[in-house]
């Protein structure tokens, strides 16, 4: 198929198929018709497929301490097979990747979720995050939801918080720039008995916001 950027060369007559400096020509060939299989989106949330879609609204709202228990209770209702495995199996290791895990609040929230998953085991955790960098606001990081500015503080507090939550060891992988990381936030749970369960968080730890007071995090913490 022949295409022209101007209308006139396509009309039979004196200017038909006439080339010129202001006219661009292109040739296209027809592609084979695809014979793919139709996807049924209604089957995506079918529990028999091993995939469970959980819509979270305000079920996890409340104090930070206990957020993991609320998540576990929610999964117990929406994904009973996963809840049964949590109760009778042990977690061998965890992997979590999140390019926005860059503030004390996000790490505290992840630690609460991890605590609920490893209540009777001490798995190793491979944590992949984007390296902390200068705050986009250009000022000091004063609140619990503000990003860290120094990578070494980010690594130290990530390790300490997650080990306190029940992890045996935290392997910290930092990546920069952020385009080297996948956009999805996935928590992979690897079981002692074999197999894995993948938890996909649509917005990662950034879905929930801290309800902070008027004082800065630095002053409240006595830093």
Structure description:
With 223 residues, the chain is of the alpha/beta class. The protein has one domain: Endonuclease, Chain A (2-Layer Sandwich), CATH 3.30.870. The protein contains 5 helices and 7 strands. The protein has helices at 67-78, 80-88, 104-117, 151-164, 217-220, and strands at 2-4, 25-27, 91-98, 124-130, 169-175, 185-191, 196-201. The strands form 2 sheets. It has a 5-stranded mixed β-sheet, covered by helices on one side. A hairpin with a 4-residue loop joins strand 6 and strand 7 (196-201). Helix 1 packs across helix 2.
Largest sheet: 5 strands, mixed
Shape: elongated
Number of strands: 7
List the helices and strands in order.
EEHHEHEHEEEH
Query: What fraction of the residues are assigned to beta strands by DSSP?
Result: 15-25%
- What separation lies between the terminal Cα atoms? 71 Å
In the CATH hierarchy, the architecture is: 2-Layer Sandwich
Short description:
The chain has helices spanning 67-78, 80-88, 104-117, 151-164, 217-220, and strands at 2-4, 25-27, 91-98, 124-130, 169-175, 185-191, 196-201. It is of the alpha/beta class and 223 residues long. The chain starts with a strand and ends with a helix.
